[in-house]
Amino acid sequence: MGRALKILSKQSPASQRKKLWSIDQSHICSVLGTCFRKSDLRKMARKKQFGLNSEDSDFLLHLALVNQVGARTPTPRALNKMLDNIYKVAIHRYAKVKDDQAIKAFWEEDILSGNIPGAYWAIMTHPSASLELITDIYGQVQMMGHDTLRNYQRDNRAFGNLKEKVALLEKVSGNERQQHFKEKKDLEKKLSDLSEMKQLHISLQAENSKLKTLLDQSSAGESGNLKQQRDELRRHIAYLCGRLDNLSEELEVKENMLKIAEKTVNNLEKTQTGIYFENEKFRQEIMSLEAVLHPQISTTCNCADCEDRDTNRCPGPDLCGRKVLYVGGRQSLVPMYRRLIERQGGSFLHHDGGIEVARARLPEMLTGADAVVCPVDCVSHEACTCVKKVCKRYMKPYVMMRSSGLSSLTKGLAEIFQ
To answer: Quick one: residue 310, left, alpha or beta (phi over 0 = left, psi -120 to 50 = alpha)?
Structure first.
């Protein structure tokens, strides 16, 4: 008996945690919905032990699992084991605290860092968590789901507006391109006309030279007949000289018109190039926004089965709670910056470069961050200098991005953490 008591006294708090089937039945739906992703449900649907139909919708798979949790049967035991394995880091962290106040403090930290699923599972199975605390946190998670739906609707409207803007830009670009081709064709015709005029000018000069030679030859043995021919030749030469002068003036005017037209073509080509790059920029913004709004489309990693998960060898995409400080940027995109970083498991910090937030706080925030990103097109020179100086001093990874768009932020994160 004494030996048994000694063994029990050595058991860690984690071994005394609640099991999935011992959680209040009204909370099971929230726990499974929050802690299992859609990809997890699809994996379980392919395994016979859960008895799920892989052709069912995500909701029906979730509902089938909820209905199977109620007693200590193989299915709840398997689900409990999967959740313990997925969120072992969070379980170990919460095992260090013993009272509601400390648990709630950890919970508030995890909300800010975006580590809600793991924290939720650790608290719902914590041996020291009171019923009052569990009920409170359950209610918070329910309200988060409502907020997420409202944010999704708002972001979806912004996404639609951005698509309309890109379509308008493409239409404008197409019209400019057609106008450019039309003007280019007109210029080519004018160039052809100028070339013909030059050839005529050369032939007239040659003919004038021949006539002058004949006039010089006839002046030596002049007779009445030759005098008449000479006068006619002189009149013809005078006419040709007048014609030549007119053609020369017209040629000069056409050449000036050609220079103006060439300059116009160059400006149009520069404008078209600018519209093309702006169009590509908006396309990249849409791709980044789609990644934020629909992360399940591009999510292909199997973090739950990865041996390198939560280690230094982890290649991503999870930022594992690291703090990313964004210095500067467009104020209207700050919620998008936050969503993009928190979707990848990071903690978002922001300093606007001194517009509203005091510049004196920037060095303090830089030293507390794990990585720094700074768009050079939307931040003060003083803030850029401070970022480079502090990051080099403390050897913190940082990226000076070319623009403040979401695509630049995505590339910057990949450059830092991969």
So the answer is: left
Residue that has been written with the tokens 């709670």 in this structure: 321
DSSP structural state of residue 308: T
Question: Cα–chain-centroid distance for residue 146?
Answer: 26
Say which residue, 297 or 218, is predicted with more confidence: 218
When pLDDT is averaged across residues 62-67 and rounded to a whole number, the result is 86
- Cβ-based neighbour number of residue 205 at 10 Å: 12
Structure confidence by residue, pLDDT tens digits, 18-29:
998 888 888 889
What is the rounded distance in angstroms from the CA atom of residue 161 to the CA atom of residue 163? Answer: 5
The residues, any chain, with a CB within 8 Å of residue 48's CB and separated by 6 or more, are: none
Structural domains in the chain? 15-129 (no CATH), 160-293 (1.10.287), 314-417 (3.40.50.1370)
**Binning pLDDT at 50, 70 and 90, where does residue 359 land?**
confident
What pTM value is reported for the model?
0.37
Residue reference for tokens 């104020």: 331
Q: Rounded to whole angstroms, how far apart are CA atoms 351 and 408?
A: 17
Q: Which amino acid is at 222?
A: E
Beta bridge partners of 351: 327
78 contacts 286 by C-beta, under 8 angstroms: no
CA neighbor of 134 nearest in space, from 26, 209, 253: 26
Element (H, E) at 271: helix 224-293
Q: What pLDDT, on a 0 to 100 scale, did the predictor assign at position 34?
A: 92
Beta bridge partners of 374: 400
Backbone angles phi, psi at 293, to 5 degrees: -75, -35
Element (H, E) at 94: helix 88-94
Q: Are 368 and 395 in contact (CB under 8 A)?
A: no
- Residue holding tokens 């005098």? 227
Residue in the structure block whose two tokens are 């720094």 = 372
pLDDT one-digit tens code per residue, 188-229 = 888 888 888 888 889 888 888 888 887 776 665 556 676 778
Of the pLDDT bands very low, low, confident and very high (cuts 50, 70, 90), residue 280 is: low
Residue 81 CA to its chain's centroid (Å):
37
Distances (CA, A) of 369 to 11, 175, 350, 354: 37, 48, 10, 18
